[in-house]
Amino acid sequence: MDTLNHENLQRIYHHAGSTYPEECCGFVFADGTVHRGVNIQSELNRRQPDIHTRTAANGYTFSVADTLAMNQSFRSSNPVTIIYHSHPDVGAYFSREDENKALFMGKPAYPVAYLVVDVYKAQARSAKLFQWNGKCFACIQEFQVNEQDSTTHVRS
Ligand SMILES: [Zn+2]
């Protein structure tokens, strides 16, 4: 998928490092534009901890503005094609929670693939792209962050 070129992966890795130890979330449009989303999961958890048991440390929910922009894109000539989020310190896998979020009544909620970034100690290590195959979200591509690709991130 050429929307995930070197430059875009760097942007996404950098985003993932900057929100560590919380998850980042965002999406990529068909034309390759990377949109950094706002993860409001901790805000939801603060307001309704009984309903929203997860914080941004282990979950993500896009802001209303992000969700609106994404939904509008599906009716435009430049739709979102990839939704990304990061997994701090647990590896890049498609979790049950990720699947629940991606499905609506057993069918994909959005016509997109999902990129999950493995972040360890604020450094992106790898990323995996998952796509619905009719039964589950299967990994269709894996990206390794090599030394040339890695960016140094200084936590402030
Ligand atoms: Zn996840």
Explain how this protein is built.
With 156 residues, the chain is α+β, with helices and mostly antiparallel strands. The protein has one domain: Cytidine Deaminase, domain 2 (3-Layer(aba) Sandwich), CATH 3.40.140.10. Helices cover 24% and strands 30% of the residues. It is built from four helices and eight strands; from the N terminus they run H-E-E-H-H-E-H-E-E-E-E-E. The strands form two sheets. The chain has a six-stranded mixed sheet with strand order 2-1-3-6-7-8. A hairpin with a 4-residue loop joins strand 7 and strand 8 (137-144). It is globular and about 40 Å long. It starts with 5 loop residues before the first helix and ends in a 12-residue tail after the last strand. The relative contact order is 0.19. The model is unreliable at 150-156 (pLDDT under 50). The site of zinc ion (ZN) has 5 residues, from strand 3.
Structure, briefly:
The chain is an alpha+beta fold and 156 residues long. It has helices at residues 6-19, 41-47, 64-73, 96-102, and strands spanning 25-29, 34-36, 80-88, 103-104, 107-108, 113-120, 123-132, 137-144.
Structural class of the helix and strand makeup? Answer: alpha+beta
CATH fold assignment: Cytidine Deaminase, domain 2
Cα distance spanning the termini? 34 Å
User: Based on DSSP secondary structure assignment, what is the total number of beta strands?
Assistant: 8
